[in-house]
């Protein structure tokens, strides 16, 4: 089976600042990987790259077996295959929950019927299933701008699931939520991925959540991979060094 | 200090205006009784002219409808050229400047020029409304384009939707209510403004207002006035009923 993604010495700069430095990384199909690190570490940039939205980077990258280009948008097949859950949800406010989720299916439809809103049976079934999975069935007719933040988040997840992705990418999916909500949402995303047998790559700045929901944690700092370990092997020293640059006080053990 | 200066300037402006002999403000006290007499002569309204009045109103309505229709077509094209998010500033800046210039020319002046160009009748009225309304509508449309949030469009692109699908399901839903609201608003303005076009010979009910007032047939002018009030109130009612749906 092809890897979920493979990066080979990928670098990217925003103006003069390095966002990614010689990143080499890969993930097996079905693997749950958390990208952990302080803000500005390059997590969002890395996810945008995997989603094929980054331009002007250097190195080699392949997602779901399709090589990415640094100058051109990825082929439709890849855009459809990689589902992305945006940090700010990116919903169309004036459309209903149902249509927002249906929007995830557009790439699989014939163009004319899709423009007239004549969706196929399969599309309706997949949309209904995604709403069911995210507990939104009762809100299907509600307009997206009439929802709470947590509900909007679930619409964004449902849209991604309706897309039938082969890989889920999620940028800080729970950064705006309280701890109880955050757990539920990450449980929802990873549960749905397991049900479909696909992998999840998500970014977070909360080490506990990363540990709980990922098989593997990649620590990013200043655009470089600082550590890459199975979640169970990540120590509090790893975390401290990731966030503060040093292990707190050489010789001084921090009691936590 | 600057507040005191503001008041002084305001007071000076009013004094300057009122002290001119040509203003004839001394006639003001006599105006009340004259107005009363004038209104008295309007009563009872002469309803026998209702056919002409209806014909005039229908022509006004046609001018407003066609003027709005052509303005929509022109504005759709110009809006793209005036949108900051679609074209470089070397394009949208001059286009917006042009639109501002168009807006600054009073409709009645445009109508007089059009009458000069194509002769009397409803055609100069339609052209004048088209020209005048485009100045505002194209600007509104351009703003609607510029206010489209990018994130949902990016999300659909990322999900594999084609350009047309993004336009249909992420861009249009954001723009449509704004555009419809602005267009209905502009239509109402067009209708009000085309009521006076007839005064300069550019078609519509205005011609009857002028004819009846100039020939001292105030009872007939009263009928026209009532008809105009009814039309304006009706268009306002339709507008506000539609307005509730555009949110």
How would you describe this structure to a colleague?
- The complex is a heterodimer of chains A (256) and B (247).
- With 256 residues, chain A is an alpha/beta fold.
- Chain A has a domain at 5-90 and 166-244: 3-Layer(aba) Sandwich (Rossmann fold).
- Helices cover 34% and strands 24% of the residues of chain A.
- Chain A contains nine helices and ten strands.
- Chain A has helices at residues 43-50, 76-81, 97-102, 111-116, 121-133, 149-162, 179-196, 207-213, 236-244, and strands at residues 5-14, 17-27, 32-36, 58-63, 66-67, 82-85, 167-170, 199-204, 216-221, 224-230.
- In chain A, the strands form two sheets. A six-stranded mixed beta sheet of chain A has the order 6-7-8-3-9-10, with helices on both faces. In chain A, strands 2-1-4-5 form a four-stranded antiparallel beta sheet, covered by helices on one side.
- In chain A, helix 7 (179-196) links the parallel strand 7 and strand 8.
- Chain A is globular and about 55 Å long.
- Chain B has 247 residues and is mostly helical.
- Chain B has one domain (47-243): Orthogonal Bundle (MetI-like fold).
- Chain B has helices at residues 2-18, 28-42, 50-81, 89-104, 107-118, 122-146, 150-158, 163-194, 206-214, 218-243.
- In chain B, helix 3 packs parallel to helix 6 (122-146), helix 4 (89-104) packs across helix 6 and helix 6 (122-146) packs across helix 8.
- Chain B is globular and about 75 Å long.
- Chain B starts with a helix and ends with a helix.
């Amino acid at each position: 089976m092809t890897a979920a993604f493979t990066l080979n010495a990928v670098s990217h700069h925003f103006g003069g600042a390095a966002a990614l430095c010689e990143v080499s990384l890969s993930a097996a199909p079905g693997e749950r990987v958390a990208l952990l690190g302080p803000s500005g570490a390059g997590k969002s940039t890395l996810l945008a790259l995997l989603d094929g939205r980054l331009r002007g980077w250097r190195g080699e990258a392949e997602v779901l077996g399709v090589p990415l280009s640094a100058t051109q948008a990825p082929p439709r097949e890849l855009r459809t295959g990689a589902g992305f859950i945006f940090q700010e949800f990116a919903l169309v406010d004036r459309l209903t929950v149902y249509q927002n989720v249906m929007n995830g299916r557009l790439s699989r439809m014939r163009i004319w019927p899709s423009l007239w809103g004549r969706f196929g049976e399969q599309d309706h079934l997949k949309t209904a299933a995604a709403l069911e999975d995210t507990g939104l069935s009762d809100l299907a007719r509600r307009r997206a701008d009439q929802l709470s933040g947590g509900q909007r988040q679930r619409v964004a997840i449902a849209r991604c699931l309706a897309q039938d992705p082969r890989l889920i990418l999620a940028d800080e999916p729970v950064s705006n939520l309280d701890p109880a909500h955050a757990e539920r949402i990450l449980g929802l995303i990873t549960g749905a991925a397991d049900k479909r047998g696909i992998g999840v790559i998500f970014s977070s700045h909360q080490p506990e959540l990363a540990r709980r929901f990922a098989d593997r944690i990649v620590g990013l700092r200043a655009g470089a991979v600082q550590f890459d370990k199975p979640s169970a092997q990540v120590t509090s020293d790893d975390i401290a060094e990731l966030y503060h640059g040093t292990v707190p006080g050489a010789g001084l053990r921090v009691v936590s | 200090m600057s507040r005191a200066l503001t008041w002084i300037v305001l007071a000076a402006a009013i004094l300057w205006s009122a002290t001119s002999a040509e203003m004839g403000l001394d006639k003001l006290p006599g105006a009340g009784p004259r107005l009363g007499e004038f209104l008295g002569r309007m009563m009872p309204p002469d309803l026998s002219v209702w056919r002409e009045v209806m014909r005039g109103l229908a022509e006004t309505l046609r001018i407003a409808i066609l003027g709005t229709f052509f303005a929509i077509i022109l504005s759709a094209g110009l809006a793209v050229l005036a949108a900051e998010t679609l074209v470089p500033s070397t394009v949208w800046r001059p286009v917006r400047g042009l639109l501002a210039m168009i807006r600054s020319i009073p409709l009645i002046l445009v109508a007089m020029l059009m009458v000069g160009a194509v002769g009397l009748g409803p055609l100069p009225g339609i052209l004048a409304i088209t020209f005048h309304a485009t100045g505002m509508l194209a600007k509104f449309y351009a703003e609607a384009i510029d206010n489209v949030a990018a994130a949902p469009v990016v999300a659909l692109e990322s999900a594999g939707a084609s350009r047309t699908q993004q336009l249909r399901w992420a861009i249009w839903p954001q723009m449509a209510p704004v555009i419809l609201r602005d267009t209905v608003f502009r239509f109402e303005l067009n209708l009000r403004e085309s009521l006076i076009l007839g005064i300069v010979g550019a078609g519509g009910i205005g011609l009857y207002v002028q004819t009846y007032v100039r020939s001292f047939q105030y009872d007939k002018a009263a009928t026209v006035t009532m008809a105009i009030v009814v039309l304006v109130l009706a268009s306002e009612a339709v507008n506000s009923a539609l307005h509730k749906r555009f949110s």
